[in-house]
């Protein structure tokens, strides 16, 4: 009962926080908008009739630049939060994150190849995300194939394969950056994570991928609860372990790949958010997943706001902000784990 009260309380806090971070994300930036003017332009819709100066300027900034960016940040933060919660439960390790299986590295390699070949300009807004998503999908297929033998996927082999593949792909990316110096700055900025490419088209695509993956994950929450206590326990409870593991891995990789495809790799959100939520709301994944989604979305919107406003007119990659905020927390986890041994 006490846990349920904490869960409901955290849900209310996160929902209220979403309203606050949404307002901040829309109003603050290189050009500050008054809250009343921003709300008026928002309610009238894009290109609403009768909009006069300065409301027309507010409308252009909101609907073209900030609104899609804030929504995409929330979607991708939510995706990373849920994927991180699933990976931590599946591997029974609080230091697991959505990128542990090499999804981020594969997506980054696909995007880097696209940048070098100029595919982003040729295919429009879908060029880089398509290649990035393909790279992420190929990575998880390779890792899963290496870790699966006679229909059984070994968790530790899966982790080791992910680490090995990530190292290999990182070396390939570094080699490409050295060979193609004319694209060096653009590649570096993308691999640090950025929301500068946010458009309504990318919001729609990311929302579809994320919604499909999250639905599959949430429906498997009870099975994941059982697996979190050990595969032997889950087997005796009647859970089809290998089927559930494959479903969870592919669905979590799907939402992670969608996130990386549109924003680049954004570190620590999928590690810290679900861990912090679990400490407050407990380990039950039917509550942990939606709460991690809300918290992850709020965190990434705020991080992107900092990235846009901390050193104007320059913009810091959002992955740098999340790393600066998340690294101390990660170190604390390491010291705590060592102390508890």
Summarize the structure.
By secondary structure, this protein is mostly helical. It contains 15 helices and 2 strands.
Polypeptide structure, described:
The protein has 341 residues and is mainly alpha-helical. The protein has a single domain (2-340), classed as ABC transporter involved in vitamin B12 uptake, BtuC (Orthogonal Bundle). The chain is 78% helix and 1% strand. A two-stranded antiparallel ribbon has the order 1-2. A hairpin with a 2-residue loop joins strand 1 (148-149) and strand 2.
Number of domain modules: 1
The CATH architecture would be Orthogonal Bundle
Strand proportion, as a percent range, falls in under 5%
As for the CATH topology, it is: ABC transporter involved in vitamin B12 uptake, BtuC
Strand adjacency order, main sheet: 1-2
Number of strands: 2
How many angstroms separate the termini?
31 Å
Give a short account of the largest sheet.
Answer: 2 strands, antiparallel
CATH class: Mainly Alpha
Topology:
Blueprint: H1 2-27, H2 35-44, H3 55-91, H4 103-117, H5 119-123, H6 127-147, E1 148-149, E2 152-153, H7 155-179, H8 184-191, H9 200-219, H10 221-228, H11 231-236, H12 241-263, H13 269-281, H14 285-309, H15 318-340
Antiparallel strand pairs: 1-2
Helix pairs in contact: 1-3, 1-14, 2-3, 3-9, 3-10, 3-12, 3-13, 3-14, 4-6, 4-7, 4-8, 4-12, 6-7, 6-12, 9-12, 13-14, 14-15
Note the main attributes of this structure:
341 residues; mainly alpha; ABC transporter involved in vitamin B12 uptake, BtuC; two-stranded antiparallel sheet
């Amino acid at each position: 009962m006490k846990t349920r009260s904490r869960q409901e309380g955290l849900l209310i806090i996160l929902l209220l926080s979403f309203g606050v971070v949404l307002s901040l994300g829309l109003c603050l930036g290189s050009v500050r908008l008054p809250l009343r003017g921003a709300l008026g332009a928002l309610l009238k819709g894009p290109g609403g009739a009768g909009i006069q100066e300065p409301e027309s300027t507010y409308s252009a900034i909101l609907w073209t630049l900030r609104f899609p960016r804030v929504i995409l940040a929330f979607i991708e933060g939510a995706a990373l939060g849920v994927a991180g919660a699933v990976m931590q439960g599946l591997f029974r390790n609080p230091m697991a994150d959505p990128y542990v299986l090499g999804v981020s590295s594969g997506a980054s390699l696909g995007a880097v190849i696209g940048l070098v070949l100029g595919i982003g300009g040729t295919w429009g807004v879908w060029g880089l995300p398509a290649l990035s998503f393909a790279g992420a999908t190929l990575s998880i297929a390779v890792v899963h194939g290496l870790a699966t033998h006679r229909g059984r996927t070994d968790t530790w082999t899966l982790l080791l394969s992910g680490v090995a593949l990530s190292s290999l792909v990182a070396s390939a990316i570094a080699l490409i950056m050295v060979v193609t110096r004319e694209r060096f700055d653009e590649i570096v900025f993308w691999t640090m994570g950025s929301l500068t490419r946010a458009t309504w088209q990318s919001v729609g695509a990311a929302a579809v991928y994320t919604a499909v993956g999250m639905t599959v994950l949430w429906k498997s929450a009870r099975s994941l609860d059982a697996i979190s206590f050990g595969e032997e326990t889950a087997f005796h409870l009647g859970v089809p372990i290998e089927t559930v593991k494959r479903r969870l891995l592919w669905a979590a990789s799907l939402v992670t790949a969608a996130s990386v495809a549109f924003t680049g790799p954004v570190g620590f959100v999928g590690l810290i958010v679900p861990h912090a939520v679990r400490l407050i709301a407990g380990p039950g994944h039917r509550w942990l997943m939606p709460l991690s989604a809300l918290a992850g979305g709020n965190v990434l919107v705020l991080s992107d706001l900092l990235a846009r406003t901390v050193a104007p007119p320059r913009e810091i990659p959002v992955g740098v902000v999340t790393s600066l905020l998340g690294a101390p927390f990660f170190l604390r986890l390491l010291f705590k784990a060592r102390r508890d041994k």
